Amino acid sequence: MTTSPEEARPVVKPKPGKAGPVMVVLLALMMLWYVFTVILNTPWQKDVFKRADNKDWNMVELVKGTMAQERPVLPAPHQVATEIYKTTVQKKITSKRSLIYHSRITLTTALLGFLLGTLLGIALAVAIIHNRALDKSLMPWIIASQTIPILAIAPMIIVVLNAVGIQGLLPKAFISTYLSFFPVAVGMVKGLRSPESSHLDLLRTYNASPSQIFWKLRLPSALPYLFTSMKIAVAIAMVGAIVGELPTGAVAGLGARLLAGSYYGQTIQIWSALIMASILAALLVTLVGLVGAWVQARFGFRETQLSGKGI
Amino acid sequence: MKSLRGALVLIATVAAAIALIAGLWIGPLISVAAFIALFVSCQCGFSLLRTDPMDANSSVVWQDRAIVIAMLSFGTVFGSYVLLHQLGIFESADSPEPGFAFYSLVVSIWALGWLLVEWLADIDSRRGFVRRILGVVIPVLFGAGLLMLWEVLTRALDVPQVLLPSPSAIAERFGNSLSVLWADFKQTFLKAVLIGYAMGCGSGFLIAILIDRSPFLQRGLLPVGNLVSALPIVGIAPIMVMWFGFDWPSKAAVVVVMTFFPMLVNTISGLAASDHMQLDLMKTYAANYWQNLFKLRLPQAAPFIFNALKINSTLALIGAIVAEFFGTPIVGMGFRISTEVGRMNVDMVWAEIAVAAVAGSCFYGLIALIERMLTFWHPSVRSGR
């Protein structure tokens, strides 16, 4: 993964901006959502009209009705937005109906799991690049470990850990850890091996010790890879936290909101929890990206070439 | 490097010596195994003192290595056999609990196993055949060692079945409930996962080709797609169950949505991967759009597409199983896992996990194999990894 071809290419014209197209795509998606709201909710609405003996309904009434149902098949975006507003701004944070309360629980779980996973991933990567035997024996299993659908065994992990007496945050965080250590480990192994051999040779001519080589060359050159994989890891940790909340009997957290919503057919509640989770995930990924950009700037990387090249 | 081996040799030697002495009171078998372990670990130590494992490929070193590896393999295998045999004795009635000698032997054999892997990893053959064999043997040895440790510890320490059943118990349960496992596999994997995977990947690929001619849409969809792939999409599972019912179509729908975006994003960036020289060359051939697409850009995009296929193979399994937590007919891997956990039949859950792990690994391996065959020209494949 050298960056030379990109550097060698002459700059022909400035890259066109992304904001415009993204806005258009988002708007189109929103339109599509509204269209589907109308289509999917129409049968129910017709049923409502029939029961109300309202035979002379017109198109406007129908469309309006589809967007104001109590339990729509697909809630309209503004319904979801209202629900989110109601459950965040208008409720006390300590209230069990507040989405912020549930988000906080999911967020702490995800962050704890992400932290542990990142540390574990880095530790594994360091061990792997310093020991051939570990590289050959452990690496295939690390990759194989991800073909096991850990999310599927989440309920068992939680029940078993509960039986041992470990309760609360840790079992759920453990699932996030398992999910998020993998991208970090793989990315870090790649990153720690990314220094060119001429650089390594140079340090060898300086008679640098392995630890000096690690701190002064390998670690700095692994940073771009680390942050790229951390972005993946934090997103996946969020998924782990949400799924980890499902089997605990829907007590608290965004996953619990999803499960409760699906039990009682509260589609608007499901969607608002989903959107909230998405917003949080997007925020976390952006945050990690910003921290990464800042750290790399401090280390003197040019961020143009390196972003998105990690894995 | 050398210090780690030295430490392992030391551990193996001391543990074996303790096992030898303590084993004299228990039975001849443990003493014999401990004696062999002691002998082998001492030989390893001598070999370490004689040669530097890092350098020199002279025939003397090779001979030395071969002898050490042979001895280590024998010591580890025999020691493991003795451990398992001894476990059987411990579990029969009115016999002593596994004691000091037993655990020392476990530690010693574990250290010997690690040393074996260390020595095997040193072999740096230039022949591809040997390298490939080693690439399989070393991880398999590691896995076998882990299984062995799991078996010995769960049985010796009498870990309750509910917490962690031993591999042999899981294997027994596996063998006894093949029909149930097969039905679950059929429901979840053959129906929901495969169909959803094919539809999700296929539609992602087609949409990427469709918007290929519009740079505007690409610039808009790429960031959005990237964002959406980072979102917790499994969360739509309850919605899909409401829309498509309890049977497999709802699970397939979750899989479709989960696999769509990685495929879309990867195909779009793959189609942009051809560099200017290649595109110019195609232009000099007067290639039209479709020729350009099929002869240059799609092959160039293949590594990206396969990357998405690999990511999606694990995502699909996860999506289908998690979706089953939200409602299913009374068959399916996710259903079985959640109900058997509730009934504390943890060995059945592990059997189901084994099925999922094998299915997932085979699925992934199959795609990796196809990738090697189709993108044989790519540097990452050519160098033999």
List keywords for this structure.
heterodimer; A: 311 residues; mainly alpha; MetI-like fold; 2 domains; disordered C terminus; B: MetI-like fold
Task: Provide a quick synopsis of the model.
The complex is a heterodimer of chains A (about 300) and B (about 375). Chain A has about 300 residues and is mainly α.
Give the % helix of chain A: over 70%
Helix and strand composition category of chain A? mainly alpha
Q: Which runs of chain B of at least 5 residues are low in confidence (pLDDT < 50)?
A: none
Using the alpha-carbon principal axes, give the shape of chain B: flat
Sketch the major β-sheet of chain B: none
State the fourth-level CATH superfamily of the largest domain in chain B. Answer: MetI-like
Gap between N and C termini of chain B, in Å? 23 Å
Mean pLDDT of chain B: 82
By CATH reckoning, the class of the largest domain in chain B would read Mainly Alpha
The CATH topology of the largest domain in chain A comes to: MetI-like fold
Report the oligomer.
heterodimer
Distance between the termini of chain A: 10 Å
Number of helices of chain B: 15
Mean pLDDT of chain A: 78
Question: Which pair of chains has the greatest number of interface residues, and how are they split between the two chains?
Answer: A-B, 64 and 64 residues
**Number of DSSP strands of chain B?**
0
Series of secondary-structure elements of chain B, N-terminal to C-terminal: HHHHHHHHHHHHHHH
